Amino acid sequence: MKLDQLRRADVARCAEIEKILFPGDDPWSARAFHSELDQGHYYLAARSDDGETLLGYAGLAVVGRRGDYEANVHTIGVVPEAQGQGIGKALLRALLTRADELRAAVFLEVRTDNDPAVTLYEAHGFQKLGIRKRYYQPSGADAFTMARPAQAPARDEVAG
Questions:
Q1: Which of 28, 26, 27, 33 is nearest to 11 (CA)?
Q2: For the chain, what are the domain ranges?
Q3: What is the rounded CA–CA span in Å between residue 44 and residue 1?
Q4: To 5 degrees, how large is the angle CA 135–CA 22–CA 132?
């Protein structure tokens, strides 16, 4: 598996994956992904070793001014057949590396019943701030709002 930038050519496949991953809610459309890219948000793709197959994607939005940035994980998705192989973890770590470069606190929402994702986020320093009732539609599922404080980049990244 390798990570690189999400391309516009990936958008249709991302929308297909969303329908598979989030059938009871409002999965992101191709238009939503295009909008995210148009806004210049940081999006990554996880691809098979040969680069031919999109295995997952992740996006991070950063707002604010230098020295006062905040980041929000907008999405992380991994195709079902590739889940449990560390792809989601690799995508999250790459997003966090970007946030750390900017010394940005990171926020996200995650379904309260998505135990694997909650466990992953907690293992990476996120804490639950509260619950957003009926956040996901049309299912009405609740979401935890989680946050990770701003971190300084790793020493080798600064020297880099």
A1: 33
A2: 2-159
A3: 13
A4: 15
18 is an active site residue: no
The tokens for 17 are 């994956």
| Residue 148 phi, psi (nearest 5) | -130, 125
Domain 2-159 is found in CATH 3.60.40.10? no
Pairwise CA distance, residues 144 & 89, whole Å: 19
Q: Record the pTM.
A: 0.91
How buried is 45 (Cβ within 10 angstroms: 0-12 exposed, 13-18 middle, 19+ buried)?
Answer: buried
Tell me, yes or no, if 121 is annotated catalytic.
Answer: yes
159 pLDDT exceeds 70? no
Find the catalytic residue in 57, 121, 135, 136.
121
Query: In the structure, what pLDDT confidence band is assigned to residue 160 with cuts at 50, 70 and 90?
Result: very low
Closest listed residue to residue 98, CA positions, set 153, 39, 36: 153
Separation between Cα atoms, residue 74 and residue 60, nearest integer Å: 6
pLDDT per position as a tens digit, 5-39: 999 999 999 999 999 998 888 899 999 999 999 99
Please compute, for residue 142, the number of CA atoms within 13 A of its CA located in the half-sphere on the CB side.
Answer: 11
